Amino acid sequence: MDNQVTPVVVGRAPARAQSPNCRTETHDLEGLLDFESAAVFLSTSPRHVCRLWQERRIAAVKVGKAVRFTRADLLAYIEHHRVEAVR
Fold it and tell me: Could you read off the pLDDT of 11-40 as tens digits, one per residue?
């Protein structure tokens, strides 16, 4: 009998084979952020991100009951609220 223990690898699940009809070029599902991660991305609080979403001032994706944000939507929000310097 071999008493060696197989190491457990912790991390991402293996990538799934994608069907030809899957449109991954438009949505990066691995890049979905929750409220806390979106708050870190925007350098604000999770409560502020929640308020922005509730007021529909920021786009979000519903995954079941969970609300998630894409980096592209967060960058669009930042660009929309950009204020140019006056010279």
Answer: 555 555 444 444 434 455 568 999 999 999
Strands 61-63 and 66-68: antiparallel
Q: Is residue 6 part of a domain?
A: no
Domain containing residue 70 = 29-80
- Interior CA angle at 72 toward 69 and 78, to 5°? 95
The two three-digit tokens of residue 69, written as one number: 């944000």
Spell out a b/e string for 16-45, using b for 16 or more CB atoms within 10 Å of the CB, else e. eeeeeeeeeeeeeeeebbebebbbeebeee
Sign of torsion over alpha carbons 7, 10, 12, 13 = positive
Residue 52: inside a domain, yes or no?
yes
Any bridge partners for residue 69, and if so which?
A: 33
Distance CA 73, CA 79 (A): 10
